[in-house]
């Protein structure tokens, strides 16, 4: 089973106005792989994730995600339908930096909503599996709480459960711990690690280098809209090949070194 | 061509003058009311609160007619135009006082604390720290209030002030072209208000850019 | 005219004012009931991908926002009459106020939709929800909470501006004041009483809406979360 690419990007470009955010990016993700994407802010990491589930539409390039093939030709009108996009998104779960839980719904309702509305799952059944998912992220007792009654870490764990409810083949995490108070980061990373142990395919944009070292199969370093390094964590952290990766790590470790060394 | 177009354009000046005088009056009333609402004296606060509640809770149409009939019965005999400007100013003043109050409270706290920590006296804080920021915050909504005033000035027609709307009625009574005339009038008001709206949006944007720096 | 308050105007005018007040309330209820859904449609047009729908919505809303209601009433009433469409003042008043209210609500609803954080829609689309479902299930229920104050404003504006319908002889509260004035020759009393009745209606409406809004569960939840999202998001 592993070895089949679930995501395959070829020469994907994306610009916002004059600003070119992705410069012909190629990326293959195999089923079951866990990949961390790191790099300075503004390097295009988030945009890359958002192109995979088409929250951003690439200007050019080709995209294969979970069996859906899409061709983006510069200037031409999109050839795929809204329906295809929605089908693709159903097999790609996404977790946002700012959680984006639906404020008017309880934790349980947040998790149930998509299966009921999109897949037509009966309500009782959706509630049952939603409750199980909340248990899986350690929040079985918070099912009737509203987002406003949960801590940031709890909200993010509900958001993970919500994404899992659609039974995705791959999970995208866009800086899932960046908006959290430091003491709440751990509980979210724990859930993500468990998910990785269960064999989920994961693409994680993060600044948590410890997580990258422990969980990732590959680390991708991006800068100025291009992938500069793509290798196993140990070689990235110990022998970065490019000058920019060295600078990035030096700045990052220099700041952290005073407190602790996150990399063994 | 539409009969009476030159007259309409001339009457537009009356509408503009009435609006400008009224906004000036409204600013004075608004500032005084906002100050009264912060006053130490309960009676001043009560009066200001009552004035704002009455004006905001009743139609301008009723206010204008009420003042128009009330003044002579109090022995005050002034031209209709003046009555109209006073009514418009009184109406708009209540909205402006709320705006001032809102702007001041929205900046007050942290700014005041920072200034007091530097041992600035309260009067200096008001003058140097709060007012400049409040004015800046208020300029876009004030421009919109001016737009509302231009629209409200149409009500002067009901007490016989010959401004844009009244002139249109006079023209129609001889030309019998209500549709064309009212469309022309609507276009004139639209241009006035739309331009003011653009100014407000421009001010809002340039201030938010400044604030972001 | 003497400067004292003639109480007989009140006793004489009471039934007329009462009828007028009922009529004003009825007009505003009708204008709200029809204007809100119409305004919703127009607001949704403003967010459409189709340029023509966006243009239509703008072309509908902007003239109403930028001209006096008085002129709108004259134009619609006498304009339609000139085109051969004659309506009774009651029907004309209801139609004019409804169109006006749909333009006001359209703006309020647009503001409401804009104040729902972008991430709410984004996360709905990310799980594969179609746009319409996301609007209906995620954005709309929250929008209602955000726009409660703006809706109150619209309704109170309707109550006050509907007085201008008296100029086309629509029988409502301002018209009632005019009738009482004509019968009693006491304009100050007539308009003072009308003002008090209007004030009662508007403050009552304002208090009523905020009472209902405070009791609504979802609205409270959203307000709670508004205060708790300070740290999150850009």
Describe the structure.
The complex is a heterotrimer of chains A (264), B (213) and C (234). Chain A is of the alpha/beta class. Chain A contains nine helices and ten strands. Chain B has 213 residues and is mostly helical. Chain B has helices at 5-37, 42-57, 60-73, 80-117, 122-152, 164-175, 178-212. The mean pLDDT of chain B is 88. Chain C is mostly helical and 234 residues long. Chain C is 80% helix and 0% strand. The longest helix of chain C is centred in the first third of the chain and has 40 residues, at 7-46. Chain C is flat and about 70 Å long. Chains in contact: A-C, B-C. The interface between B and C is large, with 41 and 41 residues.
How is this structure best summarized?
The complex is a heterotrimer of chains A (264), B (213) and C (234). With 264 residues, chain A is α/β, with parallel strands linked by helices.
Key features of this structure:
heterotrimer, B: 213 residues, mainly alpha, MetI-like fold, C: 234 residues
From the helix content, strand content and strand pairing of chain A, which structural class follows?
A: alpha/beta
Instruction: Give the CA-based shape of chain C.
Output: flat
- Give the overall pLDDT of chain A as a whole number: 89
State Rg of chain A: 19 Å
Oligomer: heterotrimer
Intertermini distance of chain A: 32 Å
CATH-defined topology of chain C? MetI-like fold
The class by helix and strand makeup of chain C works out as mainly alpha
Low-confidence stretches of chain C: 226-234
What spatial form of chain A do the alpha-carbon principal axes imply? globular
The separation of the N and C termini of chain C measures 64 Å
Taken in chain order, the helices and strands of chain C follow as HHHHHHHHHH
Number of helices of chain A: 9
Pick out the low-confidence regions of chain A. 258-264
DSSP strand count of chain C: 0
Helix content of chain A: 25-40%
Largest sheet of chain A: 6 strands, mixed
Report the CATH C-level class of chain C. Answer: Mainly Alpha
What is the H-and-E element order of chain A? EEEHEEHEHHHEHEHEEHH
Number of domains of chain C: 1
Q: Topology, pairings included?
A:
The complex is a heterotrimer of chains A (264), B (213) and C (234).
Chain A: E1 5-16, E2 19-30, E3 34-38, H1 45-52, E4 60-65, E5 68-72, H2 82-90, E6 92-95, H3 107-119, H4 123-136, H5 152-164, E7 170-174, H6 182-197, E8 201-205, H7 209-215, E9 218-223, E10 226-231, H8 233-238, H9 243-257
Parallel strand pairs in A: 3-8, 3-9, 6-7, 7-8
Antiparallel strand pairs in A: 1-2, 1-4, 4-5, 9-10
Chain B: H1 5-37, H2 42-57, H3 60-73, H4 80-117, H5 122-152, H6 164-175, H7 178-212
Chain C: H1 7-46, H2 51-65, H3 69-82, H4 89-115, H5 118-126, H6 131-146, H7 148-161, H8 173-184, H9 187-215, H10 217-228
Helix pairs in contact in C: 1-2, 1-4, 1-8, 1-9, 2-4, 3-4, 4-6, 4-7, 5-6, 6-10, 7-9, 8-9
């Amino acid at each position: 089973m592993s070895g089949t690419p679930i995501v395959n990007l070829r020469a994907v470009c994306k610009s916002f106005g004059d600003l070119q955010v992705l410069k012909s990016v190629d990326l293959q993700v195999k089923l079951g792989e866990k990949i961390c994407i790191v790099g300075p802010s503004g390097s295009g990491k988030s945009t890359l994730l958002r192109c995979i589930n088409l929250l951003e539409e690439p200007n050019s390039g080709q995209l294969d995600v979970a069996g859906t093939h899409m061709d983006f030709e510069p200037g031409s009108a999109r050839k795929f339908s809204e329906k295809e996009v929605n089908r693709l998104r159903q097999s790609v779960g996404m977790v946002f930096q700012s959680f984006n839980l639906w404020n008017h719904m309880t934790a349980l309702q947040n998790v149930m909503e998509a299966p009921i509305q999109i897949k037509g799952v009966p309500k009782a059944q959706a509630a049952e599996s939603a409750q199980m998912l909340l248990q899986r992220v350690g929040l079985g007792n918070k099912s009737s709480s509203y987002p406003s009654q949960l801590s940031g870490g709890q909200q993010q764990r509900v958001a993970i459960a919500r994404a899992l409810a659609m039974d995705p083949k791959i999970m995208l995490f866009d800086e899932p711990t960046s908006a959290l108070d430091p003491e709440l980061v751990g509980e979210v990373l724990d859930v993500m690690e468990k998910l990785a142990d269960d064999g989920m395919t994961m693409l994680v944009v993060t600044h948590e280098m410890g997580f990258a070292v422990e969980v990732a199969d590959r680390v991708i370093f991006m800068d100025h809209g291009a992938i500069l390094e793509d290798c196993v964590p140990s070689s990235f952290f110990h022998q970065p090949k490019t000058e920019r990766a060295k600078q990035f790590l030096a700045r990052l470790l220099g700041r952290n070194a005073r407190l602790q060394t996150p990399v063994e | 061509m539409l009969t009476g177009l030159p007259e309409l354009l001339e009457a537009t000046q009356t509408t503009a003058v009435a609006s400008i005088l009224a906004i000036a009056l409204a600013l004075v009333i608004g500032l005084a009311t906002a100050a009264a609402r912060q006053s130490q004296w309960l009676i001043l606060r009560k009066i200001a609160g009552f004035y704002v509640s009455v004006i905001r809770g009743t139609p301008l149409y009723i206010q204008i007619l009420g003042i128009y009939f009330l003044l002579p019965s109090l022995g005050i005999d002034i031209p209709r135009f003046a009555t109209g400007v006073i009514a418009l100013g009184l109406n708009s003043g209540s909205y402006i006082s709320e705006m001032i109050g809102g702007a001041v409270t929205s900046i007050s706290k942290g700014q005041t604390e920072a200034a007091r920590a530097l041992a600035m006296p309260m009067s200096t804080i008001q003058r140097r720290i709060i007012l400049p920021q409040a004015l800046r915050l208020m300029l876009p909504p004030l421009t919109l209030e001016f737009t509302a005033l231009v629209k409200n000035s149409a009500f002067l027609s009901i007490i016989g002030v010959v401004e844009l709307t009244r002139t249109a009625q006079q023209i129609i009574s001889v030309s019998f072209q209500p549709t064309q005339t009212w469309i022309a009038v609507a276009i004139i008001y639209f241009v006035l208000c739309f331009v003011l709206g653009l100014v407000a949006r421009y001010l809002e944007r340039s201030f938010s850019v400044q604030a972001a720096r | 005219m003497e400067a004292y308050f003639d109480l007989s105007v009140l006793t004489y005018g009471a039934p007329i004012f009462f009828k007028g007040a009922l009529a004003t309330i009825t007009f505003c209820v009708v204008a709200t009931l029809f204007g809100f859904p119409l305004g919703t449609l127009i607001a949704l047009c403003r967010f459409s991908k189709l340029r023509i729908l966006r243009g239509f919505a703008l072309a509908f809303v902007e003239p109403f926002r930028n001209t006096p209601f008085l002129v709108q009433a004259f134009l619609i009433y006498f304009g339609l009459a000139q085109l051969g469409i004659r309506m009774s003042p009651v029907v004309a008043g209801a139609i004019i106020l409804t169109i006006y209210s749909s333009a006001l609500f359209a703006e309020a609803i647009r503001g409401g939709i804009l104040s729902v954080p972008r991430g709410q829609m984004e996360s709905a689309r990310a799980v594969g929800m179609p746009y319409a479902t996301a609007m209906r299930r995620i954005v709309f229920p929250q929008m209602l909470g955000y726009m409660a104050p703006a809706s109150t404003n619209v309704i109170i504006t309707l109550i006050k501006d509907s007085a201008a319908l008296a100029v086309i002889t629509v029988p409502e509260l301002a018209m009632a004041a005019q009738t009482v004035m004509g019968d009693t020759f006491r304009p100050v009393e007539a308009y003072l009483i009308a003002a008090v009745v209007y004030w009662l209606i508007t403050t009552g409406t304002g208090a009523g809406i905020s009472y209902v809004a405070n009791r609504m569960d979802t609205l409270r939840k959203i307000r709670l979360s508004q205060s708790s999202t300070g740290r999150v998001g850009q």
